[in-house]
Amino acid sequence: MLMNRRQFLYATGLLTLAPSISLAQLKDTYYEVLLRHTRWAETQYDPVAGRYRRTDFGFAVVLGNAVLLTRGNYDAALAGIEKDVLRQHTLATIKHFAASNVLAGGTEWGKTLFWDTTFQSYFVLAARLLWPDLDAATRADVETIARGQADYTTSLGTGNDPRSGGWTPNGLTGGYRGDTKLEEMGVYAQSLAPGLAWHGDGPGWREAFGRWSRNEAGLPAADLANPSTVDGVPISANTAANLHDTFIVENHGSFGPHYQSELWRTSGRNAVHFLLAGRPLPEVLTKQPNGELLWRTILATMSDAGEPLMPMVDDREHLYGRDVIPLAFRSTVLRDPMAAFAEAALASRLLAYQAHPPVYRLAKFSGEAKYEPEARAELAISYLLHELRPPVTPVPDFFARAAITIDHGADPGLLTHQSAAAWAGTVTKPGFTKFAWQPAHDDWLFKISGTTPMLLPPATVTKRNAVVHQQVRDGFDGTASLLAFADGFAGTATLPTGTIVCALPRPGRVDVHNLAMTGMPGLTGSRTYTGASGRVTVRAREAFRVDELTFPATTARHVRMVGVRPHPTYGYSLFDFDVEGDLARGKPTTASSFDTGMEPGKATDGNPATRWAVARAERGRADSWLAVDLGAATTVSRVRLRWETAAAGAYRVETSMDGAGWTTVAEHPRPDLSTAGWLDVDGRAGFVARAADPITVHGDTISVPSGIVEGYVRADLRAVAANPAPQCPPSVQASTADGFLTLFNLSNADVTGTVRLHGTRLYRGTQLTTTNGTGYALTLPAATARIEPPWFTARHIPAGITAIVHDGRRVTFRGGPARFTLTHRDGTTMSIVLGQAERTVTMPQAKPFPLNDLALGRVTFPNSVLPPGMTDPAAAVDGRQNTSWTPGRDGRMVVDLGSVYGIRVGLKWTDGPVPPHTITCSTDGKTYGQATVARYVAVSTGWRPGHASLRSLSVTGGDPVG
Which residues form the signal peptide (predicted)? Predict the structure, then answer.
């Protein structure tokens, strides 16, 4: 059996690679994980009360129990409890909490929309699975709960739940800045689903369910362009604005993919009730307004583990058990092959994740205790979804299909690039500034979550200039940004190869995940770093960090630790500060600050369980300190510091005779490796620094020097570093990583001049060949960045030839006579004979990138859901000649240009009678009319069968307006 085989592999330590999970194994995997998790679930059982605990909704474990008791092959050895005993615990708990629910006349829990109704949904579902085993009174209570909650939620209309405090959907207006109301509206809909599913339609129930469900992902600018009906109501009737107009969700003041998934998380909870009750799914569960554009944002941040990367969230990262249900819903109910791939990737890691300490748990990296019973319940629902709706076959080339570049705007603060080889994002949200990069989409390689800094200074960005390159318009995918800070500039760029480039105003930092998680790829308990100076292996720290520092003997009365780099979230905290063994024990100890109950003396009291911690308000302060007075001058040569989670990234030890004048005697960390030019990280990624200063490794932290730094997924770093760097005018920095010319103007002034390049790649613009390269004529506006792809390579071209690259197809040469070979980046080769006169060459079949069409690759509406008879309007802006948009009867499409431009619009139709049509424009997506300045362009038709389809909608114009 699968379970016994896995059990053997775990016991023998042979399970060292994440297993590949087939569609047939998904249910078995979920079942086995639930079995193993039961050992944790039983810690929630109170033997005195005879039921699972109320604390943190621990009693919600009954849903996982109900699945194990009614399905599959129960294995008591894995579960750690006999099946009959588990049944007794479960039934007693259901009986108690059914009666104690407020809706059934109790006082212990229930009715409150946040968060009781989430666990109430699990509870009702568990009761229904075990319905034959429940007594009549308990059944009546469960029915009362489902009906009563539907009645109560409906009675609120569009108002707030007075029991839920500040948790509110803000009526049907919603909200998207800081905290989306998608989640709140989802909870309102979720509280109605059990009543609708198990008891049919009560007064106003279905209307309320549909109203909240349709508005969850509402965005008026998009919804007003969609007349499609869902459950009989037009999407254009939606009023809520719960998303930014780039279809990104904020929560807790930042972009949170965890909440981006709420649309399908609540849908999964709701759908399982209807499916188990044998009732048809409400249409809104399968036709979700704007759902696919929201899903696109998840794909744009997806990792190889089936979880989205979370560059602005920390305590919701790596919640494997809790993150299954959105994928399970999309793969089974929505039949999404992309979600099916991600779900299989996540499921393949579940057992390895679960076996990592603390064992059995499914949400072990979160600070919220209620996530654990919730994860069990949602894994149980995922199992049931697979039982009721077998999943679609996964796509084979997920990341190639998911590849996209999106600028979500300065307000959300995320410029993201998902490529086939890596994910990267420039984060400029205040408090989260970083240039996050995950080579090979491995979310266990570099730490990028929450406030963890990466590469960029963590300071506030005062000005942001961002450029998004798209294959359809520019011939390649990439992003470039130039960021201004109070004291300087920084630049970032991402390339289609997965490589990143940054221009750093000061040294940057990268933190590396390093732990042992048997069965998880890459997490072997060590990381190996290789550079020109040698190789070092850094072992993972399995417990709280202990630093033993020695230094030349010195005479001192006072010894102190002075912080240099605090823990990014928690600052500094020490269990023990020992000097020469026990000289500091019980001695007077002071600090720059302390938190209540964590006074300075707790670090020198000899009690290993007590600790000093900086005051909460001082956690971000770098130079916090802790000092001990030894009482008399003493010879000291060593200190020992035992840190809590809030361990210093860097600090120094100082001594003093009088407590006023201090001398540094030791510093931490001392580099494990310091190497010039390049550094390979565990064979998984690498950095090349175009600077004289070295790259250093300090434990699990990499420090890179200021200037141009390039990051590669896999490359011959020694060879890359040996390539000469571009020579630039003052205030300009440049890179030719992977052949692309990346340019940064790190100043407030326009720059003209010459960039001297090695080799004979030719970029858009004018360049003059030299004996070993080219001189590229540069014009770069103030505080901007851009990327130029290498459209041509001229082999054996002599010095003194001027090449003017007009676009990706055409180049003009001057300065002959000369003979050389011209190769296009698509591989096409042409022999060039250049005489005294200039010669213009056009490459056959090549496209003249970049194309001057603002509509290419832009988001179009209607999107999801399409009206009857209409095909996807995106076909009119995809740059292909063999695709077109069929409007359907009186169909209308809208393209969002992303910004307001001065515009000219052109239409091309397929063969046949062109339908009557009008073109209107809008700056806000709501009010349309005739204009030459617009962000939204609409084509309204009187289309009928037999009319032509729209082959292309093109928009040309100048720079953004305003």
Answer: 1-24
3-class SS at 523?
coil
Contact present, 39 and 69 (Cβ < 8 Å): no
CA-to-CA dists, residue 378 to 323, 382, 781, 811, angstroms: 8, 6, 52, 59
- SS3 track for 825-858: CCCCEEEEEECCCCEEEECCCCCCCCCCCCCCCC
Radius of gyration of the chain (CA): 31
Other beta carbons within 10 angstroms of residue 3's beta carbon come to 18
Per DSSP, the residues of 703-728 read: EE-SEEEEEESS--HHHHHHSPPPB-
DSSP state of 787: E
The answer to whether 148 touches 192, Cβ cutoff 8 Å, is no
290 neighbors 247 (Cβ within 8 angstroms):
yes
Question: Tens digits of per-residue pLDDT, 842-851?
Answer: 999 999 999 9
Residues 6+ apart with CB under 8 A from 757: 726, 736, 741, 767, 773, 774, 775, 776
Q: What is the pLDDT of residue 14?
A: 29
475 neighbors 856 (Cβ within 8 angstroms): no
- Which two three-digit tokens encode residue 90? 């479960």
Q: Which of 468, 478, 461, 329 is nearest to 407 (CA)?
A: 468
Q: Which of 219, 297, 290 minimizes the C-alpha distance to 257? A: 297
| Nearby residues of 571 by Cβ (< 8 Å), 6 or more positions away | 563, 613, 614, 618, 619, 620, 621, 624, 646
Gap between the Cα atoms of 866 and 872, Å rounded: 7
Handedness of CA 593, 595, 596, 597 (dihedral sign): negative
Tell me: the pLDDT tens digits for 937-953? 999 999 999 999 999 99
Give the count of beta carbons closer than 10 Å to the beta carbon of residue 784.
18
Tokens at 231, concatenated: 């459950």
CB 873 within 8 Å of CB 912: no
Angle in degrees, CA 555, 557, 560, rounded to 5: 100
Q: Quick one: tokens of 188?
A: 């309102």
Mean per-residue pLDDT of the chain? 94
Q: How long a stretch of residues is the chain?
A: 962
Query: What's the pLDDT at 962?
Result: 65
| Long-range own/partner contacts, residues 131-138 (CB < 8 A, 24 or more apart) | 133/87, 133/91, 134/91, 134/94, 134/95, 135/95, 137/99, 138/94, 138/95, 138/98, 138/99
CA distance 290 to 273: 24
Question: Which amino acid is it at 787?
Answer: I
Can the peptide bond before residue 115 be classed as cis, meaning omega within 30 degrees of 0?
yes
Q: Which amino acid is at 447?
A: K
What's the pLDDT at 22?
77
DSSP string, 454-476: -SS-SSPPSEEEEEEE-HHHHSS
In angstroms, rounded to a whole number, what is the distance separating the alpha carbons of residues 273 and 124?
9
Q: Are 61 and 122 in contact (CB under 8 A)?
A: no
How far apart CA 325 and CA 145 sit, in angstroms, is 24
420 near 403, Cβ under 8 Å? yes
Closest CA to 92 of 142, 49, 43: 49
At which residue do the structure tokens 């259901």 appear?
Answer: 94
> Tokens 């038709």 appear where?
941
Average pLDDT of each block of 10 consecutive residues along the chain (962 residues)? Answer: 35 39 87 98 98 97 98 97 98 98 98 97 98 98 98 97 94 95 97 98 97 97 96 97 96 90 97 98 98 97 95 88 95 97 96 95 89 97 96 94 97 97 97 97 96 94 97 98 97 98 96 94 95 94 86 96 91 96 95 96 95 95 96 96 92 96 93 95 97 94 97 96 96 98 98 97 98 97 98 97 98 96 96 96 95 96 96 97 97 97 96 97 96 96 98 89 70
Distance CA 388, CA 675 (A): 57
**Tokens at residue 775, please?**
């001189």
The continuous run of DSSP H or E covering 6 comes out as helix 2-12
